[in-house]
Amino acid sequence: MICAIIFPANLSTSAMIFLAGLMLLYLGGVPFKYLALLFASILTLGVLVVILSLTVPALQKTFPRAQTWVNRIVNFSENKTVKSDENYQVAHAKVAIVNGGIKGRGPGKSTQRNVLPLPNSDYVYAILIEEWGFLGGFAVVFAYVVLLLRGKRIFNLASDPLAAYLGVGLSLSMVLQAFINMAVAVDFFPVTGQTLPLISMGGVSVIFTCISLGIILSTSRSVNVSKISVNVS
Question: By CB neighbour count within 10 A (0-12 exposed, 13-18 middle, 19+ buried), where does 78 fall?
């Protein structure tokens, strides 16, 4: 229901929440075949809605961003030499990554941040690699993986089911958002507008990230100490 409400205005966020929900259902023991059937059904329905919104005038007001979604996918899949704002961003993001090399140019020495339209949000990962190199980029990926593993550990050890699912669910959402942002920056995924948690400059996104981390820390208090003792022994 939440995904359906968000879908007309923000496809990427609704898709991210839906995927995180599927992962939670899988962790909760729902058979994979049912999740695959649900995913295929929702994907088919989503594609049908987008097609209808482009062809039926009455639906264009309900889904005003449908054409934008299609354009982003087309720009990603077609020839990158075609000039567009999004291809311009991707091209300079690649330049930033190449300039970074292994060790980077150094903090504050990025040249592409003066060229990219959104160097502090959508493409901050490319700027981070330019300044800190591939080593810095790998360190960021590793940090998000650690966050996900800690959320999974809370899920395994928490005595309260609500705390367990909250901890791993919020961790999944943050890490999934991070990997989507990084995939866009390195041209592995179409432009989505998702920010990089804990790094990108933003308003609501930063507030949500801080609240999520606070909830994750709070859920860790429900960890069953006896389970930790058994694992250690």
Answer: exposed
